[in-house]
Amino acid sequence: MNTVHLVVVSAGLSQPSSTRLLADRLGEATRRALSDRDEDRTVTVRVIELRELAADIANHLVTGFPGPALRDAIEATERADGLIAVTPIFSASYSGLFKSFFDVLDNGVLAGKPVLIAATGGTARHSLALEHAMRPLFAYLRALVMPTAVYAASEDWGSGGDATTDGLAARIARAAGELADQLAGRPAAAPAASEQVVPFAQQLAALRPAGR
Length: 212
Known about the structure:
Distance between the termini: 54 Å
Radius of gyration: 19 Å
Largest sheet: 7 strands, mixed
Low-confidence stretches: none
Oligomer: single chain
């Protein structure tokens, strides 16, 4: 039996939150898709609510040190086999809280990690923010971004789509299937390496030419 650790990051600000609702539906759809591919596979899904970490994230940006709750969220993100990242769209882009969380991650921790991106907004006009803002952000972080990104406007909830477009449920299922396909064939993420401090004298010795 193997275990897949999935982390869902939700940047919704209100309660209840449509962003959190979309995050939960994507997480459950991915868990179900992974179980369908292998009944013996165990899937853990952890949701990180950035709303609860807003003060910790701001403090980390100015001090460089995360509090215990933020450190736990960061480590869970680093250890995750796959990530689902969901944000509300403000002013045609992701929220500042969403961006700030990914700003405090160490460089390279998302490299090669499968990531499903999703967003919510008041109208469908903001949906392109997925492609001109979110996808470039995770491409810069060298994550493996799934082809299908999910956007949910207010009118999408409960919609079955039309003759030319899929409804929200179909988009969630397709995106979750893509993420599950990536995770199904991947080995579990290696545990984060513990920090090792190399003495300064040893670093100098390594720089000296041989024979001196």
